[in-house]
Amino acid sequence: MATSADVRRELASLADPHRAEKLTRFLQMVPGGYGEGDRAIGVPVPDQRRIAGRYWRDLPLSATVELLTSDVHEERLTALFVLVRGFDRGDEAERGRIVDILLANTGYVDNWDLVDSSAPYILGPWLLDRDRGVLDRLAGSDRWWERRIAVLATFAFVRAGDFEWTFRLARRLLGDPHDLVHKAVGWMLREVGNRDRAAAEEFLTRHYREMPRVMLRYAIEKFEPGRRRQFLSGVV
Fold first, then answer.
1. CA–CA separation, 12 vs 218, rounded Å?
2. Mean pLDDT, range 70-77, rounded to an integer
3. Which CATH number does 1-107 carry?
4. pTM, whole model, 2 decimals?
5. To bridge 166 with a disulfide, which of 36, 154, 210, 230 should be the other Cys (CB 3.0-4.6 Å)?
6. How far, in Å, CA of 83 to CA of 137, rounded?
């Protein structure tokens, strides 16, 4: 059996202070930033994925949780890569345990890269044929990353051609105060448009005047230049 210490040692061996400094700025792990209080050691994401791929079979869930609750950003992200691997390949019981771990530890999934690497690949697929009420709870959280988890989980539904919950949460979060939630909603609306342009345009035509500008820009990013100008200038 592998241990959390084994994974930590491998990550530490790849630590790069210069990269850590850049990541600290990029993910705003600075006073007043949305990632304030986090700590980076500077391990590239491909290396984290490689380590997760090597350890996921032999790393107990308890050890994965130890990594997920670390104060080191790369340890948390690597833990999420392990959980995604386990979810993809696990039976129903194992998948359920992994979802429970994710939901019990959302306080540590507290930056956009952590959310985006887990919610669409664990929570979303789990909820495809289950009650989705947990998304309403997350969308009502006072933590921006939990609201982003709710939105990004709907990516799994969008891929399955089901847009109802993306629209539902988008309506609810039109007035959200956080830029990273605006971007997440706009991104998911863009994904809807990639699959059903008419459905996306119908939603946007009803709500674009209420949308934060960044949300709208993300949502219409793939539209033709003329159509984008119409939405941005309010002449739809």
1. 36
2. 98
3. 1.25.10.90
4. 0.97
5. 154
6. 22
